[in-house]
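Subject: sequence -> structure tokens, single chain

Hey, anyone have a minute? Need the predicted structure for the following. Not urgent.
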Amino acid sequence: MLSQIIARGVGGYPAGSETEMDKNADVYKSLRLAICSEQRRALLFSLMEREKPLADLKKELKTSSPALVHALRELEGNHFVGQDRTRKYGLTPIGRSAARKVIDYCRMMEVLKKYDTFWSEHDLRGIPDQVFDRIGSLRDATLITGTPLDIFKAMRRFVELLQDSATVRFVSSIYIPNIDAIVLEKFASEETSIELVLTDAVLQHLIDEAGQPRLKGVGGKRLTLRVLHDDPKLVTVVTDRFMALALYRTDDTFDYSSTLTSENPEAIAWSQQLVDHYVSVSAEVTL
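Reply:
Had a minute. Here:
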């Protein structure tokens, strides 16, 4: 997992770019100030709520006044914290922005550690950087895994959830069994919309299985087909009620046995952003 994250680069600079890091020593000093102290992190998170006097901070964080004042002075020295005329401490605009970044980082690490094996054993390159940066949105997600006797448990649950949804957006590198039946039967008879963003090979397989005239019959506003010329190496679906993500393993085989799902609105919004990316690099198909 760590090697894949490092390969993306840190802070917008290529990994291992010592020259850039040296040039921005003050930036990294501020970063360490916000991240590397549990007490300073706690102060930033607390002051995100509202301005507070020293007595309230001392009581909330259960720490001594000298230690608290020292931490506050360090944050003030980097323009993260200020004090108003009533002697209440609050975050500056710089401090508020830094606090949001620290929160995002903590959420990201929470997600990566929660399902460490899932992330470390799968190819993450199909998730663009701007989407991966918000992966903390998946902190409430559930990992559905198959068993030796039922390796397709995750994919079966994936299809079940899909059938209960009214609005579906779907990106896929593989052909999902029964997807043609879902499109033709469920979406042909109900006021439901579906957007399929597929690779050339998967799109052609769908057309062959379902039949072009039948697909065309459920087209228009309810069905949109788009084609990807580059393989995203993932399957993701986002609907009005859930999101799901399945990935390729690092050995370039698709993992049918593991699917990350969530009904949390924040996770659904994250998945919408992922689908939006692939819509932006795809072309609409007219049958």
